[in-house]
Amino acid sequence: MPETDGVILEIKKVNKSFGGLLAVNHVNLSVKKGELRALIGPNGAGKTTLLNLINGILQVSGGNILFNGQEITNLSPHRISHIGIARTLQITSLFPGLTVHENIWTAVQSRKKFFNPFLPAKRWRDVQEKTEAMLELTGLKEKASLICSELSYGDQRILEMGIALSTEPKLLLLDEPTAGLNSQESMALVKKMRTMLSGQTIILVEHDMGVVMKLADTISVLHYGSIIAEGPPAKIKENEEVKKVYLGTEDA
Amino acid sequence: MSSWKEKPFRFTLIFGLVILGLVILPFFTELYYQTFLTELFVWILFAISFDLIFGYTGLLSFGQALFFGIGGYTVTILTRKYGLGTEPGLLLCILIPMLFAWFVGYFSVKLTGIHFVIITIIFAIIANIIGDTWTSLTGGKDGLTFSPRPFRLGFFQVNLMDIKGNYYFVLAVVAVCYLILRRIVQSPLGKIFISIRENEERARLIGYNVQRYKLIAFIIAGGLSGLAGGLYSITLKYVGAGYLHWSVSGHAVVYTIVGGMGTLIGPVVGTGIILSLEHYLVNFLQATDLVVGIVLVVMVLLAPKGIVGLIQSRWKKGKSSA
Description:
The complex is a heterodimer of chains A (252) and B (322). By secondary structure, chain A is an alpha/beta fold. Chain A has helices at 47-54, 77-83, 100-108, 125-138, 153-166, 183-196, 209-215, 233-238, 240-251, and strands at 7-18, 21-32, 36-40, 62-67, 70-71, 85-88, 171-175, 202-205, 218-223, 226-231. In chain A, the strands form two sheets. Chain A has a six-stranded mixed sheet with strand order 6-7-8-3-9-10, sandwiched between helices. A four-stranded antiparallel sheet of chain A has the order 2-1-4-5, covered by helices on one side. In chain A, α5 packs parallel to α6 (183-196). The longest helix of chain A has 14 residues, at 125-138. Chain A is globular and about 55 Å long. Chain B is built from 14 helices and four strands. Chain B has helices spanning 8-24, 31-56, 64-82, 86-108, 113-133, 135-138, 163-186, 188-198, 200-205, 210-236, 246-259, 265-281, 288-302, 306-321; strands at 144-145, 151-153, 156-158, 238-239. The chains are: A alpha/beta (252), B mainly alpha (322). Chains A and B meet through α2, α3 and α5 of A and α7, α8 and α9 of B.
């Protein structure tokens, strides 16, 4: 295994163009095991596109993506999931008609190899136990039998992270978990995330700078599909170019 | 605690009572009703197999008539031309439609929404035209008549030319199929089907090969639709290109929507109600379809989850207010 310095994800010169528009432009990015990497940048900078390229929702136009030294470029999303990358979406993506318990269950059982059509699902004790443990971890145990569309929006965001975590990922891609939450709710979510996600390797796309500064180990700044700065939160805060393109646009 | 809504004891009790009722019913009714009920059982099987792909997996297939018809032709032709017994005939009217479902599904499951609906209709229409015109094989517009051989299993034997024997035979097969389907939808595989119906993208993101599981659901449903077709031709002693008509698929859609999709009991209730309605209306009204159409529109508008869904939500409300 050519795994070096605990690097888990290595993106090499990745391009993505939509027609004439270069949405992701020769991006190089490497994420270390255990790191929480934030990906920030103005709207349309290519953050979500980059996540979509990593987990196979979109195909790259050029470049390579390596995961633990293994080539994963352009694999389909379900394969990527089994390789160990989980994903939450900007617009909450759950199984809306199922209960909270069933949502988690469905994700937990996805790690099984064979789906016996004649075995009652509830006889899978280990799936049952893991589901319970995840309900505990997410704090949704009391709400387990609610249909998930009845949950508050904040709880739905937590549930989606619970679903992602239930697939036992080695890398978690979070796309704007606090989108659509007010500042109070988003602080509560951040607190929850700290306990839920400790020890996880994460790439976090986030607009809320408060959240980013609180959580991130390293920040990468995207602008027009290119990475223009990378470093610890304190450094990024002081970076003149970042101020200009990112923080500046928010003032305006 | 498991929150998958399954009540094994209550189910066993109700299922047992219903079957018991249906077993003793022929002793109290005329042959006329036995024929009606036998056909009803066949349509129930057709509707529940359709619901596996529609109500559970979320794919609206308008092509189930294709498999129904192939099932019907399979058992008829094998018996007429090759003198094959009913047992291998019925087995093949599961397996051959499954092969066709594999072929049709291979192309169809890549498509979603309306495109999926259209391609399944097109396959069924092609089959309908072939059934209509390939006279040497299918008997063309006249169809084929035949006399099914007795069904043998060990010492056990059923005369399928006898109306009562036919009744019990179809009842037994449909009951077993119901239990098998119930097992499947409660199994881990069934949970995957349900997850695809609920949110295809999320299912894919947690690692399910969505197209593969759609194809599996399509093949299972195709096999059971074929069995329904086989039982239907055994019951009528006849098969014709009409079996392949797209309106046959429409029956399953109507029964399932009226009864309640995404449950197995829904299509059973829907089939029972619509067929009984037609059965009585036909005595004094020619346009029974009109009434069925109105029922369908009213159900879709007022109770999109069907009769079973309506009862369940009333039940829930009553419970929470009590």
